[in-house]
Each structure stands twice: as C-alpha cells, then as structure tokens.
Amino acid sequence: MPQDKQTNRRIVLASRPHGAPTEANFRLESQHVPTPGKGQILLRTIWLSLDPYMRGRMSDAPSYVPPIAVNDVMGAGTVAIVEQSNHEDYQPGDWVVSQSGWQDFALSDGKDLFKLSGPVLKHPSWALGMLGMTGFTAYMGLLDIGNPQPGETVVVAAATGAVGSMVGQIAKLKGCYVVGIAGGEEKCRYAEDVLGFDRCLNHRSGDLSESLKRYCRDGIDVYFESVGGPVFDAVLPLMNTKGRIPVCGLIADYNSKDAPEGPNRLPLFQSAILRKRLHVQGFIINQDYGHRFNEFFQQMSQWVAEDRFVFREDIVEGLDNAPETFIGMLEGKNFGKVLIKVAGDTPTGA
Amino acid sequence: MPQDKQTNRRIVLASRPHGAPTEANFRLESQHVPTPGKGQILLRTIWLSLDPYMRGRMSDAPSYVPPIAVNDVMGAGTVAIVEQSNHEDYQPGDWVVSQSGWQDFALSDGKDLFKLSGPVLKHPSWALGMLGMTGFTAYMGLLDIGNPQPGETVVVAAATGAVGSMVGQIAKLKGCYVVGIAGGEEKCRYAEDVLGFDRCLNHRSGDLSESLKRYCRDGIDVYFESVGGPVFDAVLPLMNTKGRIPVCGLIADYNSKDAPEGPNRLPLFQSAILRKRLHVQGFIINQDYGHRFNEFFQQMSQWVAEDRFVFREDIVEGLDNAPETFIGMLEGKNFGKVLIKVAGDTPTGA
Question: Hey, of B270, B276, B284, B286, which one would you mutate to test binding to chain A, going by the most A CBs within 10 A of its CB?
Fold first, then answer.
C-alpha cells in the first residue's frame, strides 16, 4: 500500500510482547493526514530507522527511555520532507531528521528537527546512519569510553550491524587490530574483505572462545558491547588489564523475561572487573553525548567526504513491512543498517 | 614469643587454601637474622598491616598481583625501623614504610621504602592506615572514580573497616549523604555516632534491601564496593542513572571456588549498566594511582593535622597471632584497621 496525500498510515503498539515480539504486537491504522497549526510543520516520512533499542520501549519495565504506550504510534528516528510549514525556519521541500515514528506523516513544532544541508542531501538516509545516531553511537562509545590506542586489540560484536561496522572501521582508522564477531560466514567475509577488519569470527560456527583466543593473542583491550549473552561470556576471559567495555546495547537479553538458569556468573564478572581493573560503562548516546553532536558531525562529515567508510544499508520498501523487518533484525537477519523506505521523494496515489 | 636480635621469625605460606584459609595454611619458621650486603638495609618490623587483598595472593589463580609461592614468606606492607644500613640514604633508627612481609627482619635495597618524617612519626602505624595504602585507596576510589557531588548519596560497604570508614568520612567532608553497611549493631552505632555517617545499616539483621530503600530515598549515586555478594545485590536496584561504582575489593567472594548456584544474575547487572548508564571500574591502588601518591599524601596529611578523621585501629600483639587474626578479618571479626604489633621500638630478648 503506497503513501498518498490524504491518508496517514501508522503502526501502533497493539500489545506488549512477552519475550520476542510477534506481528500481533503491532497494528496498522489509517487516519486523515493532520493539519499543521500555528508554528507547526507537516512532515512526510521518507526513511524510517529501525534499531534494537526500540525493543526496550515496547516493554514497560523501568528503562532509560519511557515506554511507548499501548495504542500509541511506534517511535523512531526518520528522515522526512517538509510538506507544509507554518514555521519560519522551515520551507516545503526541506529535508530534515525528525522523530516522526512509524507513520507516513507527523506534525512537529521544529524543536526536534535537524535540517539537512550540503553533501548529506546526496544520500539523505545517511543522516540516520553514518552521520546520525548510528555513527554517533559508534564514535562516542568507541573513542570516549573505549579510548583505543594504536596497536591495541578492539573486539566488536554485531560486526556488520549498523553500529558495529562503524566501530570497527573507526578503530582501524585509529590504528587498532580489529576483530569482529558476526552471525554467519557471509557476514564475516564481508567484514574482512569489504569493511577491512583484521578478522571476523562467526559465533554460529565452532567454539567462539577458542577462535577468539586464537585471533586475540595479545588479549582484548576494548570490547564494544552491543549484544551480551554468550558472546560476552567468550570475551570476558580475554580482556586485558585496564580494558574498557563501552556498553551500548544487549540485544541478546532484550527478549528475556527472567534471570536465566545458573550458575550465577555475576561474581565472575565482578571479580574480572576487580582483578583486571576494567572500566565498564553504559551509555545512551543522546542523553550522554547530545552536547557533542556537532563535534561528531563535523569529524564524521569530513571522513565521509574522504570516502573513509563503507556503510551498508539493508533497505526494505514499504511501511507495512516494518514489523516483520524489526522482528527479523532482533534475530540478526539483517545485514547492515536497517531502513524502511516509506516513500519516494514525491508522494504517489491520489 | 617476643622479637630478639638474632632470630628472624617468619610466617610462610604452607599450602594454598581451598575456600576459607585455616591456620594449617601458615607455618611459623625461625632463621638467623640476615646480614645486609653492599647497598642494603636491615629492617626490623614494628607494625604489620593485614588486608583482605592478601587472600588473593594465597591462591594461584590469575590475579592482579602475583601469587605468593608456597614456602615463601607472606607479603605485607609494614612499618619498620632501620637496624643497619649500607645505603647512604638510610641511617639506623630511621622509620620507614616497607614491604617486609610477615616477619621480624627483612633486607631492602631502599627502592621500595618510604621514609617517615614529620607529624606521622607521632603515630607511625597511621602510615599503614589513614596516610598509607588504606587512606589512599579510599581517597582515589571515592574521589577519582566515584566523583561524589554535594548532596549526592554515597553508600559504602564494610563501613567500619579500614577503607570503608575513610570513604564515608571523606564523602561527608564533600557534603554527601552517607549510608554505611556493616555487620552488627555495635559497628553501626559506631559508624553513626563516632564516624558521623548519616545512617549505618546492619546487613546481619532484617532485610537489607528494604532498609536501604528506606534510607536511600533519592537512590544511590556512588556505591563504594569492597565486598560483593548479597550486599551488592541489595544495592544494585537502587543505583541512580549515571551512578558510579568504584570496585576495590570483593571480600565476600575471595574464598569461593566455583560460580555459585543460579539463577544467573549477570544479565541483570549488564542490563543495569546499560539502562542506568553506570560507570563501574575496578582499581588497584598502587598500579592505577601510584603516580598520584604525593597529591594524596599532602591533602590527607593536612586533613589529619586538622583532626578531620576518626581512624580506629584493631591492634593484635605478636607476629604469631597474625594467621588467626587474618582469618578472623576475612570473617568480619575485626573492628577497624587490622594491625599486628610485631615489636616495640626497642628489641627485647638477647
């Protein structure tokens, strides 16, 4: 079902998931397109970013972001075009990054918008990727918390994912030895051959602990954590003294309801923190580093202009495919940054 | 058995403990007092510091300090008097902090010595306490990693122990609300009435989670970790967003051999690190902060001169009582900084 000018299709949270989300947790609705009031802007969604953190917002457990209310539209970062504007800073046809969520149209008062200009307009979806929250997360987590030094070993999980692929490439730029972990041989070949990682290990084949040991002969100085679970268990024993673990996500645990069966590995982690003097730090990019976005954006824009990075987008067409795509992403079925192409540059239909 | 001039009594590691150490893991030996060679100094031990980290050195599991070899003398920080010197910087009668270990006499080349001078000579054992490794650990862990701000809530375990009592008092100096956790009513009364903590909770009575919740109404901003185990489990749910956890010890786990029974609480900790954006960092005072000892010593000397702190010493007479005292300390039987008074200022006996 394509976008049209009269109808706002939106996907709402129909119910909270127990464990892994299913399509029954989402509902597609149609409304009239809203009319912008005084000072408001009507935005039409072109690109919708799907990210693992959204799983957390579907639950009402205490978390770092408020939960989405049942029957509310699913939240998300989007790239949109201004359709109508009663705001002096925005004109129809402007491209912006917005928080429109999983829907065709949204209103904004302009405060949560970031206007796109210059080279990023050649590839607006990058504003959700390399030059957006994804790249910002990789950049700050790796450089500010991980603080990698030339020659150090950096291990990154979900190596071909949106954040992981950027972490590894930035670490290579900084002169590190980079080992990725990914699910599947194709992803691993890609990480080594295209992204330029020194190694990439398939956590679905063989003994990850053993292969990590083989390819991290000098131990691990920085582990960029976004998955948790068995990958973390394999990494921990190899962490070096004074190692750093920035934690930006725990995709392996998002769907779990209760503490898993024993043995209790918590004391083992605590003991590693003490004995190895580890620095472990969680961060949420906008809350912790929002004030440094310009610094990131300038540096990353320069690197992108110099063609330093490969950034793979896993694009699915059509808003109605968002739930299935999101569910697949949590299972690791994506290959690169997951984006829904909601519409073309000009609306179709009546 | 008192110290004499001919005999060096020393306590060696007889065997490695399995679980909690017993007296059978130690052996008292006698040797001739060694003769200092060229450039060497003969030291006579006056004060011997007993500290929980020594439990780690009795095992040969990988750790941040090399294990003590079986049949080697137990290592320890000591306050000693120079008996003989072939080193131009040291004269007989000088007081020093040394790493002489659990014995009456030791040789040194001077490189590992810290000469005592000025006011600390009035109370030389403080060089192992407030003005030594104990105070240094509290100072750096709390201020550098914990970074407490006025009005924030600081929780400290082992509140009347050597390090914990200093952490709480420094946090009070910095304008924090300080809640201690200790084992027993007497210790708790002492922490509140003498050390000036706002509250101290007895982890041996009632439900620690509930009482922590009651007395940390604004949550916990800094938890100074030295014990691990159930105290940590009670603290974690109350940690605030952007909380800090300096980890200087895990006394509850030192004697454990295997991972305890489930459920596995590791994902819960990881999830808290992420959701609350916690900063968790282990440190070993000399390795991480050795270069800042002078900064600490100057500030702390000034505070001590101003009589800002209460520092309780739990003194046991006689080197031969060191094993029993050490075992009791690991069970929390001590009350304050544990010191063995090995000898008086002048040697007795033949």
Answer: B270
Residues B185 and B283 in one domain: yes
Which tens digit of pLDDT belongs to each residue from B103-133? Answer: 999 999 999 999 998 888 889 999 999 999 9
Domain CATH code at residue A156 = 3.40.50.720
Q: Which of B75, B137, B50 is nearest to B330 (CA)?
A: B50
Q: How far apart (Å, rounded) are the C-alpha atoms in residues A185 and A205?
A: 9
Total number of domains constituting chain B = 2
Interface check B315 vs A, CB under 8 A: no
> Which of A261, A270, A277, A287 to mutate to probe the B interface, most B CBs <10 Å?
A270
- Distance (Å, whole) CA A84 – CA A96: 13
Domain that holds residue A31: 7-129+311-341
Q: What ipTM, to 2 d.p.?
A: 0.84
Would an 8 Å CB–CB cutoff place A232 in contact with chain B? yes
Q: Nearest-CA neighbor of B232 among A46, B300, B243?
A: B243
Q: Which residue has the tokens 């202009």?
A: A305
Query: Does residue B349 lie within any of the structural domains?
Result: no
Instruction: Annotate A166-211 with DSSP letters as a single string.
Output: HHHHHHHHTT-EEEEEESSHHHHHHHHHTS--SEEEETTSS-HHHH
Q: Which residue of A has its CA nearest to B252?
A: A267
Q: Quick check: B253 contacting A, CB < 8 Å? A: yes
Question: For A146-150, A332-336, B199-203, which range has the lowest pLDDT when averaged over its residues?
Answer: A332-336
Residues in B closer than 8 angstroms to A283, CB to CB, are 277
The beta-strand segments (E) located in B203-286 are 220-224, 239-247, 279-282
Residue numbers of B between 272 and 301 with CB closer than 8 Å to A: 273-284, 287-288
Within this chain, do residues A172 and A140 fall inside the same structural domain, yes or no? yes
Q: What is the pLDDT of residues B148-173, one digit of tens each?
A: 999 999 999 999 999 999 999 999 99
DSSP at B73: B
Closest CA to A184 of A196, A201, A170: A201
Question: Do B145 and B121 have their domain in common?
Answer: no
Cα angle, residue B128 at apex, residues B123 and B130 outer, rounded to 5° = 75
CATH assignment of the domain containing B324: 3.90.180.10
The residue type at B266: L
- For residue B273, give Cα distances in angstroms to A275, A289, B241, B269: 19, 17, 9, 6
